[in-house]
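Q: For a teaching session next week I want to show students how multiple molecules come together into a single three-dimensional assembly. I've collected the sequence lines for a complex. Could you give me the predicted C-alpha cells for the whole thing so I can convert them for display?
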Amino acid sequence: MPSTNTQKTNITATPTQPAINLRPGNFSTLSEALDYAACGNTGSNFYSGRGHLTHVLPYAELQSQSKNLAKRLNGLGLQRGSRIALVADTTPDFLRFFFACQYAGLIPVPLPISIHLGGHEVYVKQLARLLESCQASIAMAPEGFVPFLEEAATELNLQLIGGPETFASLEESQIPLQPLESHELAYIQYTSGSTRWPRGVEVTQSAVMTNLAGIIQHGLKVQTGDRCVSWLPFYHDMGLVGFVLGPMASQLSVDYLSTRDFAMRPRQWLKLMTNSKATISFSPSFGYELCVRRLREDSSSESYDLSAWRIAGVGAETIRADSLGRFAKALEPSGFNQQAFLACYGMAECSLAISFAPLHSGISVDLVDADELSNNRLASPISSSVIGDEEARVSKFVNCGVPLPGYEVEIRDDMGIALSDRESGTIYVRGASTMTGYFNDPVLTQEALSEDGWLNTGDIGYWIDGSLVIIGRSKDMIIINGRNIWPQDLEYVAEQQPEVRPGDSSAFSVSGPDGDEVAIMVVQCRETNSEKRDDLIHRLGSRIQKELSIPSYIELIPPRTLPRTSSGKLSRSRAKSDFLKRVEWETLAPALSLSA
Amino acid sequence: MMTYAEILPQLVETLKPYAKKVGHPKETTDLVSELGLDSLQVMQVLLKIEDQFDISIPLNNLPNIRTVKDLGQEIEQLLKA
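A: Of course. Below is the structure for the complete assembly, covering every listed component.
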C-alpha cells in the first residue's frame, strides 16, 4: 500500500464552523490575512486519490511554519523582492513556501507540474523558459521533481534549487521578518507557461486583496458555515487565488484533491463534496463534463449527497451550458440544485475575477442570431420558438453577470468607441485589481495596459442591462470577406461529429494566395482507416460550408498534439503557427480550390 | 512478488482496448504517439493499472514513462518498494 494511505490514520479534518468572527477579506496584505486566520481553528486538508485524508494544515500551523521557513529563506541573504520559483503540486509544502515568501519579502512564482506521460523533455524546456523569464533566485519543487528543476536550470544562474528538505536544513536568520507590504507584489502568475513567450502577470498585494474582498463579499457572499473543495491546480489563477487565497482570507476550511487524482477519479470530487458537506466548489465546464462521462460509463450505484453545494462555480474557459445541464440532470437525484451554478468571468491579469452572475439563479443563456452577430456585430436576441428551424442559425452565450464593485468596464469597437447594449466589441477593464504589468516585458505590458490604466482583456463580449456576456477571444477571430467568424463555431461543428470530442479541434485563419483569409481547422483524430478519415474531412467541410457558408480546409492530426497553455486552454494562435510549420502553405494553398 | 516477465502480459491485456490502432501492444510500443492515447485516456489507463496492481504511480515518474516496457518496469519497481 502506498504510504500516504496508511500514515496518520487518526487525523481529523479542520472544522467548518470557525472559532473566530468571519472577516471577509478586508486585509491589506496576504500575511495580515493569514495572521488573522491563524487565530482560528480552520485550515486546509489534503486527500489522496482514494479519498483518504493525508494531511491537515490548520491556518495556525501554516502561519507558524511559514514564518519559520521565512527566517531560513532570509538566511540566504536574497535581495527583497527576489523571485522564488515554486513547482506547484497540491501539497502542504506549496502553501508553506508561498506564505514563507510573504513573510520574508520574497515574490513567489508558482510553476506548473507536468502530468504527461513521456513529457520529460517538453517539461524541462517549459520550466527553463519560466525560470529564465521570472529571473528566479531560488527554486523549490516536491522532492521527486527536483531533478527536472535542476535539468531546467543548468544554463541559468540560480542560487539554490531543492526540495522542501533542502530548505528545512537552512540556518534560521535572526533578522526580524519584514512581510511584503500592500504596495509590493504578492506573486507572479504565469498565464501561458507552455508558449514560447511566457507572460508573468505581476499582482500586487493591494490588487489581490481588493479582488479577494470583492469575490468574498460580492461574488460569493461568503457566510459562516461555508466550506470549500478544490481540485484546481495551485499554479492556475482559479486554483491559487480562488481556492488557496480566497478560503484563507475568509477563514474557511478547504479540502483539496490533486488535479491528477481528479482527472483519474472524477467522482472523488463528488465524494469529497458529499463527505465534507462543502458549499463552494468551482470547475471549468470540462470538469463537470468529465464527471458526467464517468458516471455514465460506470453506473455503480454510489450515492452522493450534494444538497449542501450552494455555489458550483464555472469559469476559466468557454462555459458550455449543455455540459452543465447534463451534470445537473445526472446529479439531481443526489440533491444537486442547478440553481447552484454560478457563471463567472475573469483572468489572471485582474488577479482573478471580473464579474459574477447573480447567486442561486443558475446559468442564464442568451440566444442570439448568429448571422446578425457575424455580419453586423449585433447580438440580436432570437426567440426560442424559431430554434429547430433549419434556416435560423443560433449562437448561445452565457451571461457572466455584473462586474464587481470598483471595476470600470467598457466594451469598445475597433475605433475605441464605447458600445451600448448588445453591440459586440472588445472588453476593457480598469480597477484596483488589475496587474501592474507583465514581469520584465515592457512591450507586452504596453500592448495590454494603457497609460491611464485600462486593460485590454483581448476578449469580446456584449452588455445586457449591465451584465457581461462573453463571446470569446478577439485575437482568435476569423474574418472572411469582412464577416466575423467565431472559431468556436467551426469547432462546434467538429464536436457534433461522433468521433470528435470537445477540445479536439482548433480553428483559425491563414492568408491565402490572393491575400484573402482562409479558414483552417485542425482536428485531433484517433481513426486510422483512411476511408473513414476522408469521410470525416468531407463531412466537416460540407457541414461548415452549410452552416457557416464558408469554405474551409480541414487537417486531421494525431491525438494530444494540439497545443495548450499551462492552464489547459487550447491555444489557437499556436495551433496556427504549428500548422504553418507543418504544411507547406505556399504550395498547398493554390492547390486548394477554396474560393467560395 | 511479481516479476517484470509476469507483469508484462497482464499489462498488455489492460492496454489492448486502447490499442485498436496498433493491434497488439508490444514492449516497444510508445503509449502516447503509437497508441494515440489522449490525456483523458492516459488517466483511465493509469487508473486501471493502479487498481489492478494496487499501486500508486508517483506523478514525477510519468514524464519518464514512454513505452509499454517503461510502464511495466515502473510497476515492477513499485511492487518491490
